[in-house]
Amino acid sequence: MGRVPCNVRRFQNNVFTMWRCTGCGSIHCEENADLPLYYADYPLKNQQAGFAERIGYGNRLRLLERQGFRRSDRLLDYGCGAGLFLNYLRGNGVAQSFGYDAFVDAYRDPETLRETYNAVVSYDVIEHHDEPRTFLHSLTTLVRPGGLLVIGTPNADHVAIDRKGDPSLHPPYHRHILSERVLLDLGREQGLEPVHR
Q1: Are strands 97-100 and 75-78 parallel, antiparallel or unpaired?
Q2: Phi and psi at residue 22, to the nearest 5°
Q3: Cα–Cα distance measured from residue 136 to residue 151, given in angstroms and rounded to the nearest whole number
Q4: Distance in angstroms (rounded) separating the CA atoms of residues 23 and 87
Q5: Is 38 within 8 Å of 22 (Cβ atoms)?
Q6: Is there a contact between 172 and 6 (Cβ–Cβ < 8 Å)?
Q7: pLDDT by residue (tens digit) across 77-119?
Q8: Residue ranges of the alpha helices (H) in the chain?
Q9: Distance from CA of residue 64 to its chain's centroid?
């Protein structure tokens, strides 16, 4: 257990209790927070894609293609933030790329969640939810039969609560940082077959 300050400048004086489950290894933020307040000026909403981001987005697209995704398929980026990955995809021939983010006006349209997709990707989102199991279930309903669901998230197995300034902790935004075993178990509960990259 440790006391960890928020790493967003505006809230740097707010300190939260982070603890690791001895049974599963996942890390949890104990205190609840007014998340709409914290997300109102979330720094990543204004992020720009630089060279490193474009390299990462290219790697993501190649990973999807290795798993059978075609550039003509429909893709949803759930928790897309400012839409940088969507812009990359559209610029690289994935015309049917859609985004949803409850905290970004441009991507808040609930109609997006009434469709299904060949691939649903969600990078750095599941750890922000109070109920990871429920969140994962909601994503599986968006994936067409035989489609892909890709979850990118910090692995609690490699995060130390006592490492000062570790961006993986990120309280109170990160509610639950799952161990690899827990994430894979949650996926199996949903009938998903895990594929490691």
Answers
A1: parallel
A2: -70, -20
A3: 9
A4: 41
A5: no
A6: yes
A7: 999 999 999 999 999 999 999 999 998 889 999 999 999 999 9
A8: 35-39, 51-66, 84-91, 132-140, 180-189
A9: 16
